[in-house]
Design brief:
single chain; mainly alpha; 0% strand; globular
Length: 416
Protein backbone atom coordinates (compact mmCIF):
# COMPACT_ATOMS: atom_id res chain seq x y z
CA UNK A 1 0.00 0.00 0.00
CA UNK A 2 1.34 3.46 -0.93
CA UNK A 3 2.38 5.75 1.92
CA UNK A 4 0.02 8.70 2.34
CA UNK A 5 1.83 12.04 1.91
CA UNK A 6 0.63 15.61 1.55
CA UNK A 7 1.80 17.94 -1.19
CA UNK A 8 1.47 18.49 -4.91
CA UNK A 9 4.87 16.94 -5.67
CA UNK A 10 3.91 13.59 -4.13
CA UNK A 11 0.36 13.55 -5.54
CA UNK A 12 0.73 15.20 -8.94
CA UNK A 13 -0.62 12.24 -10.93
CA UNK A 14 -3.93 12.07 -9.07
CA UNK A 15 -4.11 15.86 -8.97
CA UNK A 16 -3.72 16.03 -12.76
CA UNK A 17 -6.41 13.41 -13.29
CA UNK A 18 -8.75 15.37 -11.03
CA UNK A 19 -8.07 18.50 -13.10
CA UNK A 20 -9.10 16.55 -16.20
CA UNK A 21 -12.25 15.27 -14.50
CA UNK A 22 -13.22 18.81 -13.51
CA UNK A 23 -12.85 19.93 -17.11
CA UNK A 24 -15.61 17.43 -17.95
CA UNK A 25 -17.68 18.66 -14.99
CA UNK A 26 -17.36 22.28 -16.12
CA UNK A 27 -18.14 21.40 -19.72
CA UNK A 28 -21.55 20.11 -18.64
CA UNK A 29 -22.45 23.62 -17.37
CA UNK A 30 -21.02 25.20 -20.51
CA UNK A 31 -23.63 23.33 -22.56
CA UNK A 32 -26.25 25.77 -21.29
CA UNK A 33 -24.52 29.14 -21.31
CA UNK A 34 -25.33 30.28 -24.84
CA UNK A 35 -28.12 28.11 -26.15
CA UNK A 36 -30.69 27.27 -23.44
CA UNK A 37 -32.11 30.81 -22.87
CA UNK A 38 -32.67 31.04 -26.65
CA UNK A 39 -34.34 27.61 -26.70
CA UNK A 40 -36.82 29.03 -24.18
CA UNK A 41 -37.65 32.17 -26.15
CA UNK A 42 -37.37 30.89 -29.75
CA UNK A 43 -38.38 27.23 -29.63
CA UNK A 44 -40.77 27.08 -26.69
CA UNK A 45 -41.97 30.71 -27.05
CA UNK A 46 -41.59 31.56 -23.36
CA UNK A 47 -42.33 35.29 -23.04
CA UNK A 48 -41.72 35.92 -19.32
CA UNK A 49 -38.11 36.64 -18.33
CA UNK A 50 -38.71 35.01 -14.94
CA UNK A 51 -39.93 31.80 -16.62
CA UNK A 52 -37.03 31.80 -19.10
CA UNK A 53 -34.56 32.21 -16.24
CA UNK A 54 -36.34 29.50 -14.22
CA UNK A 55 -33.90 26.89 -15.48
CA UNK A 56 -31.06 28.83 -13.80
CA UNK A 57 -33.09 29.19 -10.61
CA UNK A 58 -33.77 25.43 -10.58
CA UNK A 59 -30.09 24.68 -11.20
CA UNK A 60 -28.85 27.12 -8.55
CA UNK A 61 -31.21 26.07 -5.75
CA UNK A 62 -30.68 22.34 -6.28
CA UNK A 63 -26.89 22.70 -6.61
CA UNK A 64 -26.75 24.86 -3.49
CA UNK A 65 -28.59 22.32 -1.32
CA UNK A 66 -26.56 19.45 -2.81
CA UNK A 67 -23.36 21.32 -1.92
CA UNK A 68 -24.63 21.66 1.63
CA UNK A 69 -24.83 17.91 2.11
CA UNK A 70 -21.94 16.87 -0.14
CA UNK A 71 -19.37 17.11 2.64
CA UNK A 72 -21.47 14.93 4.95
CA UNK A 73 -21.95 12.39 2.16
CA UNK A 74 -18.20 12.44 1.46
CA UNK A 75 -17.42 11.68 5.11
CA UNK A 76 -19.93 8.84 5.12
CA UNK A 77 -19.36 7.24 1.71
CA UNK A 78 -15.86 8.53 0.66
CA UNK A 79 -15.05 11.28 -1.84
CA UNK A 80 -14.72 8.90 -4.77
CA UNK A 81 -18.17 7.32 -4.33
CA UNK A 82 -19.83 10.75 -4.17
CA UNK A 83 -17.93 11.83 -7.32
CA UNK A 84 -19.20 8.76 -9.19
CA UNK A 85 -22.70 9.38 -7.86
CA UNK A 86 -22.57 12.90 -9.30
CA UNK A 87 -21.69 11.61 -12.76
CA UNK A 88 -24.42 8.96 -12.70
CA UNK A 89 -27.05 11.60 -11.88
CA UNK A 90 -25.76 13.80 -14.72
CA UNK A 91 -25.84 11.16 -17.46
CA UNK A 92 -29.39 11.99 -18.72
CA UNK A 93 -28.77 15.77 -18.87
CA UNK A 94 -27.48 16.20 -22.46
CA UNK A 95 -30.25 13.93 -23.77
CA UNK A 96 -32.96 15.93 -21.96
CA UNK A 97 -31.52 19.24 -23.18
CA UNK A 98 -31.19 18.00 -26.75
CA UNK A 99 -34.49 16.16 -27.16
CA UNK A 100 -36.81 17.22 -24.31
CA UNK A 101 -40.25 17.96 -25.84
CA UNK A 102 -41.37 20.75 -23.44
CA UNK A 103 -39.80 23.46 -21.28
CA UNK A 104 -40.54 21.36 -18.18
CA UNK A 105 -38.13 18.74 -19.49
CA UNK A 106 -35.44 21.44 -19.64
CA UNK A 107 -36.21 22.36 -16.03
CA UNK A 108 -35.94 18.69 -15.01
CA UNK A 109 -32.58 18.47 -16.78
CA UNK A 110 -31.38 21.39 -14.68
CA UNK A 111 -32.52 19.75 -11.46
CA UNK A 112 -30.38 16.74 -12.37
CA UNK A 113 -27.53 18.99 -13.47
CA UNK A 114 -27.65 20.86 -10.16
CA UNK A 115 -27.42 17.61 -8.18
CA UNK A 116 -24.64 16.33 -10.44
CA UNK A 117 -22.60 19.53 -10.18
CA UNK A 118 -23.12 19.81 -6.43
CA UNK A 119 -21.71 16.32 -5.94
CA UNK A 120 -19.03 16.11 -8.63
CA UNK A 121 -17.55 19.63 -8.49
CA UNK A 122 -17.60 19.63 -4.68
CA UNK A 123 -15.61 16.41 -4.64
CA UNK A 124 -12.96 17.65 -7.08
CA UNK A 125 -12.49 20.68 -4.79
CA UNK A 126 -12.27 18.60 -1.62
CA UNK A 127 -10.00 15.97 -3.15
CA UNK A 128 -7.47 18.51 -4.43
CA UNK A 129 -7.40 20.31 -1.07
CA UNK A 130 -6.88 16.93 0.62
CA UNK A 131 -3.95 16.09 -1.65
CA UNK A 132 -1.93 19.31 -1.51
CA UNK A 133 -2.13 20.08 2.20
CA UNK A 134 -2.10 23.58 3.73
CA UNK A 135 0.71 25.28 1.79
CA UNK A 136 -0.61 25.17 -1.79
CA UNK A 137 -4.36 25.65 -1.41
CA UNK A 138 -4.51 28.74 -3.59
CA UNK A 139 -2.63 26.96 -6.37
CA UNK A 140 -4.85 23.88 -6.04
CA UNK A 141 -8.05 25.91 -6.26
CA UNK A 142 -6.68 28.03 -9.09
CA UNK A 143 -5.94 24.97 -11.20
CA UNK A 144 -9.23 23.27 -10.28
CA UNK A 145 -11.40 26.26 -11.11
CA UNK A 146 -9.30 27.14 -14.18
CA UNK A 147 -10.01 23.69 -15.59
CA UNK A 148 -13.70 23.82 -14.74
CA UNK A 149 -14.52 27.33 -15.89
CA UNK A 150 -12.15 27.22 -18.83
CA UNK A 151 -14.22 24.27 -20.02
CA UNK A 152 -17.42 26.22 -19.32
CA UNK A 153 -16.26 29.04 -21.59
CA UNK A 154 -14.91 26.91 -24.41
CA UNK A 155 -18.05 24.80 -24.41
CA UNK A 156 -20.23 27.93 -24.47
CA UNK A 157 -18.29 29.13 -27.51
CA UNK A 158 -18.53 25.75 -29.23
CA UNK A 159 -22.26 25.39 -28.60
CA UNK A 160 -22.82 28.90 -29.98
CA UNK A 161 -20.95 27.93 -33.14
CA UNK A 162 -22.88 24.66 -33.50
CA UNK A 163 -26.21 26.41 -32.88
CA UNK A 164 -25.45 29.10 -35.48
CA UNK A 165 -24.56 26.48 -38.10
CA UNK A 166 -26.83 23.52 -37.28
CA UNK A 167 -29.67 24.83 -35.11
CA UNK A 168 -30.39 25.17 -31.41
CA UNK A 169 -31.04 21.44 -30.91
CA UNK A 170 -29.82 18.70 -30.70
CA UNK A 171 -26.33 19.13 -32.24
CA UNK A 172 -24.88 21.48 -29.54
CA UNK A 173 -25.55 18.83 -26.90
CA UNK A 174 -23.69 15.94 -28.51
CA UNK A 175 -20.52 17.08 -26.76
CA UNK A 176 -22.28 16.71 -23.40
CA UNK A 177 -22.69 13.00 -24.06
CA UNK A 178 -18.93 12.73 -24.58
CA UNK A 179 -18.21 14.71 -21.38
CA UNK A 180 -20.44 12.38 -19.35
CA UNK A 181 -18.85 9.19 -20.63
CA UNK A 182 -15.27 10.44 -20.18
CA UNK A 183 -15.89 11.93 -16.74
CA UNK A 184 -17.68 8.86 -15.38
CA UNK A 185 -15.04 6.48 -16.77
CA UNK A 186 -12.16 8.43 -15.23
CA UNK A 187 -13.96 8.67 -11.89
CA UNK A 188 -14.61 4.92 -11.73
CA UNK A 189 -11.35 3.52 -13.07
CA UNK A 190 -8.47 5.92 -12.29
CA UNK A 191 -9.43 8.31 -9.47
CA UNK A 192 -8.44 7.27 -5.94
CA UNK A 193 -10.14 8.40 -2.75
CA UNK A 194 -8.38 11.10 -0.69
CA UNK A 195 -10.09 11.01 2.69
CA UNK A 196 -6.95 9.55 4.35
CA UNK A 197 -5.00 12.63 3.22
CA UNK A 198 -7.44 14.86 5.13
CA UNK A 199 -7.12 12.60 8.19
CA UNK A 200 -3.32 12.87 8.01
CA UNK A 201 -3.50 16.69 7.92
CA UNK A 202 -5.89 16.73 10.87
CA UNK A 203 -3.50 14.50 12.84
CA UNK A 204 -0.56 16.79 12.05
CA UNK A 205 -2.51 19.86 13.19
CA UNK A 206 -3.48 18.09 16.40
CA UNK A 207 0.19 17.42 17.18
CA UNK A 208 1.26 21.05 16.71
CA UNK A 209 -1.80 22.86 18.11
CA UNK A 210 -2.37 23.58 21.79
CA UNK A 211 -6.10 24.08 21.28
CA UNK A 212 -8.65 21.50 20.28
CA UNK A 213 -11.11 21.79 17.42
CA UNK A 214 -14.62 20.40 17.90
CA UNK A 215 -14.56 16.68 17.16
CA UNK A 216 -16.68 16.00 14.09
CA UNK A 217 -19.30 18.69 14.79
CA UNK A 218 -22.73 18.23 13.26
CA UNK A 219 -23.85 20.03 10.12
CA UNK A 220 -26.01 22.54 12.01
CA UNK A 221 -22.99 23.70 14.03
CA UNK A 222 -20.89 24.03 10.88
CA UNK A 223 -23.72 25.87 9.08
CA UNK A 224 -23.99 28.46 11.87
CA UNK A 225 -20.23 28.84 12.16
CA UNK A 226 -19.71 29.30 8.41
CA UNK A 227 -22.79 31.46 7.76
CA UNK A 228 -22.98 33.78 10.76
CA UNK A 229 -20.72 33.28 13.79
CA UNK A 230 -17.26 33.37 12.23
CA UNK A 231 -16.72 36.86 10.76
CA UNK A 232 -14.23 35.63 8.19
CA UNK A 233 -16.46 32.80 7.01
CA UNK A 234 -19.49 35.12 6.92
CA UNK A 235 -17.57 37.62 4.78
CA UNK A 236 -16.42 34.85 2.47
CA UNK A 237 -19.90 33.32 2.14
CA UNK A 238 -21.65 36.60 1.26
CA UNK A 239 -18.96 37.44 -1.30
CA UNK A 240 -19.37 34.01 -2.87
CA UNK A 241 -23.14 34.50 -3.11
CA UNK A 242 -22.81 37.91 -4.78
CA UNK A 243 -20.10 36.65 -7.12
CA UNK A 244 -22.40 33.92 -8.42
CA UNK A 245 -25.33 36.34 -8.45
CA UNK A 246 -23.40 38.08 -11.22
CA UNK A 247 -22.91 34.81 -13.05
CA UNK A 248 -26.57 33.81 -12.70
CA UNK A 249 -27.69 37.24 -13.90
CA UNK A 250 -25.37 37.22 -16.93
CA UNK A 251 -26.24 33.62 -17.77
CA UNK A 252 -29.84 34.58 -18.44
CA UNK A 253 -29.59 38.27 -19.36
CA UNK A 254 -26.63 38.45 -21.74
CA UNK A 255 -27.97 36.24 -24.59
CA UNK A 256 -31.34 38.02 -24.62
CA UNK A 257 -29.92 41.53 -24.10
CA UNK A 258 -27.25 41.40 -26.78
CA UNK A 259 -29.48 39.62 -29.31
CA UNK A 260 -32.00 42.45 -28.81
CA UNK A 261 -29.19 44.96 -29.45
CA UNK A 262 -28.39 43.40 -32.81
CA UNK A 263 -25.51 41.10 -31.87
CA UNK A 264 -25.65 37.79 -33.77
CA UNK A 265 -25.67 34.32 -32.23
CA UNK A 266 -21.94 33.77 -32.78
CA UNK A 267 -21.22 37.18 -31.24
CA UNK A 268 -23.32 36.23 -28.21
CA UNK A 269 -21.35 32.98 -28.06
CA UNK A 270 -18.11 34.98 -27.86
CA UNK A 271 -19.50 37.27 -25.13
CA UNK A 272 -20.70 34.26 -23.14
CA UNK A 273 -17.44 32.40 -23.67
CA UNK A 274 -14.95 35.13 -22.80
CA UNK A 275 -16.32 35.61 -19.26
CA UNK A 276 -15.69 32.03 -18.02
CA UNK A 277 -12.53 31.59 -20.15
CA UNK A 278 -10.86 34.64 -18.54
CA UNK A 279 -12.32 33.52 -15.21
CA UNK A 280 -10.92 30.03 -15.68
CA UNK A 281 -7.49 30.70 -17.15
CA UNK A 282 -6.91 33.73 -14.92
CA UNK A 283 -6.99 31.48 -11.88
CA UNK A 284 -3.76 29.84 -13.00
CA UNK A 285 -2.20 33.18 -11.97
CA UNK A 286 -4.50 34.27 -9.14
CA UNK A 287 -4.50 30.91 -7.35
CA UNK A 288 -0.75 30.91 -6.62
CA UNK A 289 -0.93 34.68 -6.05
CA UNK A 290 -3.37 34.06 -3.19
CA UNK A 291 -0.66 31.94 -1.54
CA UNK A 292 1.81 34.84 -1.79
CA UNK A 293 -0.05 38.08 -1.08
CA UNK A 294 -2.99 36.68 0.86
CA UNK A 295 -6.67 36.01 0.27
CA UNK A 296 -8.28 39.32 1.29
CA UNK A 297 -6.70 41.68 -1.29
CA UNK A 298 -7.75 39.45 -4.17
CA UNK A 299 -11.31 39.14 -2.85
CA UNK A 300 -11.82 42.87 -2.26
CA UNK A 301 -10.29 44.05 -5.53
CA UNK A 302 -11.87 41.19 -7.47
CA UNK A 303 -15.32 42.39 -6.45
CA UNK A 304 -14.43 45.95 -7.48
CA UNK A 305 -13.16 44.79 -10.90
CA UNK A 306 -16.46 42.95 -11.44
CA UNK A 307 -18.29 46.16 -10.55
CA UNK A 308 -16.29 47.96 -13.26
CA UNK A 309 -17.38 45.28 -15.78
CA UNK A 310 -21.02 46.07 -14.98
CA UNK A 311 -20.34 49.78 -15.46
CA UNK A 312 -18.81 49.22 -18.92
CA UNK A 313 -21.82 47.18 -20.09
CA UNK A 314 -24.46 49.25 -18.33
CA UNK A 315 -23.32 52.67 -19.61
CA UNK A 316 -23.11 51.45 -23.25
CA UNK A 317 -19.89 53.40 -23.87
CA UNK A 318 -19.02 51.24 -26.90
CA UNK A 319 -20.92 49.38 -29.64
CA UNK A 320 -22.88 46.42 -28.17
CA UNK A 321 -20.45 43.65 -29.14
CA UNK A 322 -17.44 45.65 -27.89
CA UNK A 323 -19.17 46.57 -24.62
CA UNK A 324 -20.15 42.95 -24.10
CA UNK A 325 -16.61 41.70 -24.75
CA UNK A 326 -14.85 44.31 -22.60
CA UNK A 327 -17.38 43.96 -19.78
CA UNK A 328 -17.12 40.18 -19.87
CA UNK A 329 -13.31 40.34 -19.71
CA UNK A 330 -13.54 42.50 -16.58
CA UNK A 331 -16.19 40.25 -15.02
CA UNK A 332 -14.02 37.24 -15.77
CA UNK A 333 -10.85 38.87 -14.41
CA UNK A 334 -12.60 39.94 -11.20
CA UNK A 335 -14.06 36.50 -10.70
CA UNK A 336 -10.66 34.91 -11.33
CA UNK A 337 -9.27 37.03 -8.50
CA UNK A 338 -12.08 36.12 -6.13
CA UNK A 339 -12.78 32.45 -6.77
CA UNK A 340 -9.64 30.57 -5.64
CA UNK A 341 -9.02 33.07 -2.83
CA UNK A 342 -12.50 32.42 -1.39
CA UNK A 343 -12.10 28.63 -1.48
CA UNK A 344 -8.60 28.84 -0.01
CA UNK A 345 -9.82 31.20 2.73
CA UNK A 346 -12.55 28.76 3.78
CA UNK A 347 -9.96 25.99 3.87
CA UNK A 348 -7.72 28.21 6.05
CA UNK A 349 -10.46 29.07 8.51
CA UNK A 350 -12.08 25.63 8.86
CA UNK A 351 -10.41 22.77 10.75
CA UNK A 352 -9.76 19.65 8.61
CA UNK A 353 -12.18 17.68 10.80
CA UNK A 354 -15.09 19.82 9.53
CA UNK A 355 -13.54 21.46 6.46
CA UNK A 356 -15.48 19.39 3.90
CA UNK A 357 -18.75 20.38 5.59
CA UNK A 358 -17.71 24.04 5.84
CA UNK A 359 -16.81 24.08 2.15
CA UNK A 360 -20.23 22.59 1.49
CA UNK A 361 -21.92 25.39 3.44
CA UNK A 362 -19.86 28.04 1.66
CA UNK A 363 -20.70 26.48 -1.70
CA UNK A 364 -24.37 26.40 -0.63
CA UNK A 365 -24.38 30.18 -0.23
CA UNK A 366 -22.16 30.73 -3.27
CA UNK A 367 -24.31 28.69 -5.64
CA UNK A 368 -27.54 30.01 -4.19
CA UNK A 369 -26.28 33.16 -5.90
CA UNK A 370 -27.17 31.60 -9.27
CA UNK A 371 -30.81 31.42 -8.22
CA UNK A 372 -30.84 34.83 -6.53
CA UNK A 373 -29.20 36.45 -9.56
CA UNK A 374 -31.55 34.83 -12.05
CA UNK A 375 -34.64 35.63 -9.97
CA UNK A 376 -33.52 39.22 -9.44
CA UNK A 377 -32.78 39.60 -13.14
CA UNK A 378 -36.11 38.14 -14.20
CA UNK A 379 -38.17 40.36 -11.89
CA UNK A 380 -36.20 43.53 -12.65
CA UNK A 381 -36.22 42.83 -16.40
CA UNK A 382 -39.99 42.33 -16.42
CA UNK A 383 -40.57 45.72 -14.79
CA UNK A 384 -37.65 47.90 -15.91
CA UNK A 385 -35.83 46.10 -18.73
CA UNK A 386 -32.81 43.83 -19.00
CA UNK A 387 -30.22 46.60 -18.60
CA UNK A 388 -31.46 47.52 -15.14
CA UNK A 389 -30.65 44.00 -13.96
CA UNK A 390 -27.01 44.77 -14.80
CA UNK A 391 -27.11 48.10 -12.94
CA UNK A 392 -28.47 46.52 -9.77
CA UNK A 393 -26.05 43.59 -9.87
CA UNK A 394 -23.15 46.05 -10.17
CA UNK A 395 -24.27 48.08 -7.16
CA UNK A 396 -24.67 44.96 -5.00
CA UNK A 397 -21.23 43.74 -6.05
CA UNK A 398 -19.62 47.01 -4.97
CA UNK A 399 -21.30 46.76 -1.55
CA UNK A 400 -20.13 43.17 -1.15
CA UNK A 401 -16.52 44.22 -1.69
CA UNK A 402 -16.92 46.87 1.02
CA UNK A 403 -18.23 44.24 3.46
CA UNK A 404 -15.14 42.06 2.90
CA UNK A 405 -12.87 45.09 3.25
CA UNK A 406 -14.37 45.99 6.64
CA UNK A 407 -15.24 42.59 8.17
CA UNK A 408 -12.65 40.07 6.98
CA UNK A 409 -9.21 39.49 8.46
CA UNK A 410 -6.47 37.82 6.43
CA UNK A 411 -6.60 34.02 6.80
CA UNK A 412 -3.29 33.07 5.16
CA UNK A 413 -0.76 32.00 7.78
CA UNK A 414 2.69 33.41 6.91
CA UNK A 415 5.43 30.86 6.34
CA UNK A 416 7.85 30.63 9.30
Amino acid sequence: MDEIKLGLKDNWKQFTLLVLVNMMVGGMVGLERTVVPLIGTEEFKVSSDVVVFSFIIAFGVVKAFTNLFSGTLADKYTRKKVLIMGWLVGLPVPFLLGWGPTWNWILFANVLLGISQGLAWSMTVNMKIDLVGPTKRGLAMGLNEAAGYGAVGLTALLTGYLAANYGLRPEPFYIGIAYSIIGLSLSIFVIKDTRKHAQLEAAQIQKTSSGEAPHKPDLLWVFKETSIKNKNLFSISQAGLINNLNDGMSWGVFPLLFMSMGVGLEGVGWIKAIYPVVWGLGQIITGPLADKIGRKPLIVWGMFVQFLGHVIIGLELFPPLTSGMVGSVLLGAGTAMVYPALLAAVSDAAHPSWRASSLGVYRFWRDMGYAVGALMAGIVANFFGLMWAIHIAGFITFLSGIVVWIKMKETLIPKP
